[in-house]
Write a structure and sequence with these properties.
Length: 272
């Protein structure tokens, strides 16, 4: 499933094509959304933005389209007349003068009054947005220190969008590694140093992933490994999806642990 950085990058790409453009036509695959077509068609697109793993497209007619890619959804920008990708189902298409923005495969699409989009169930539950330009390290620290989080396992919290919005499984594993936190540790078990490191790496790593198209490893290490001829998948992460491979720091083989049906990757040599 795409994580916050991937959706934010998609929002940036879509905004470059759609923002301030007039809608020639909007198409929905789902019958319950089709009554909104007439109102949106002819309106101007005010903004395209990500909120955690959701995409919000706001129109000046007073409506906002919410979508969540879930596991298989993906956005594409096509030229007029260009054929849709074979094997993918078009769920929504926004036509403007220059291009067509197409959402494939996703089934979680809703239309809301823009003034009430904060009440959409997924949006309403979101915690602090790590990719928001105004989010600071001090805000992240204050947020994660709240008493309601202290009895919960850190690895579980990092997948809870009500904790820190935008983190998914690859970010979770690499944030835990960088902060030197064991996967089964609870928030109240952390030292002050670990708590500070958790806040720092959650913010910095999520922003780095957005800026680098998904690299969560130390950039100097990644550059060195790339220079040795390693593939992107081999130098991209600290520990995620690297079972049996040597830790970039201590050389210990990376281990996988399943927590609540989701894999966490960690180094038993560094995360002590």
């Amino acid at each position: 499933m795409p994580e916050g950085p991937e959706i934010a990058r998609a929002a940036s790409d879509l905004a470059a094509v759609l923002a301030n453009k007039r809608v020639l036509l909007i198409e929905f695959a789902f019958q319950q959304l089709k009554p909104h077509v007439d109102m949106i068609t002819g309106s101007r697109i005010k903004s395209v933005r990500a909120r955690s793993k959701a995409m919000l497209v706001e129109f000046d007619c007073g409506l906002t389209v919410y979508s969540h890619n879930q596991l298989y959804g993906r956005w594409a920008i096509l030229a007029h007349g260009e054929a849709s990708q074979v094997g993918l189902q078009v769920r929504m298409a926004i036509h403007v003068d220059e291009a067509v923005a197409v959402l494939y495969s996703a089934s979680d699409i809703e239309v809301w009054p823009s003034a009430n989009i904060g009440e959409q169930p997924y949006i309403r539950k979101l915690g602090l947005e790590l990719l928001a330009a105004e989010t600071t390290l001090n805000e992240v620290l204050a947020h994660i220190r709240q008493p309601k989080f202290q009895g919960r396992r850190v690895a579980t919290l990092l997948l809870d969008q009500g904790f820190l919005a935008g983190i998914g499984n690859y970010l979770r594993s690499d944030i835990l590694f960088a902060a030197r936190i064991k996967p089964d540790a609870r928030m109240k078990d952390l030292t002050v140093v670990q708590t500070n490191a958790l806040a720092h790496h959650a913010l910095a790593m999520t922003q780095q992933s957005f800026a680098t198209n998904g690299i969560t490893n130390d950039l100097k290490i990644a550059k060195k490994l790339r220079g040795r001829g390693m593939k992107f998948s081999q130098y991209r992460h600290w520990v995620f999806d690297r079972v049996g491979e040597p830790c970039h720091v201590c050389g210990t083989k990376i281990t996988r642990l399943d927590l609540s049906g989701r894999a966490v990757f960690w180094c038993v040599g560094c995360q002590v």
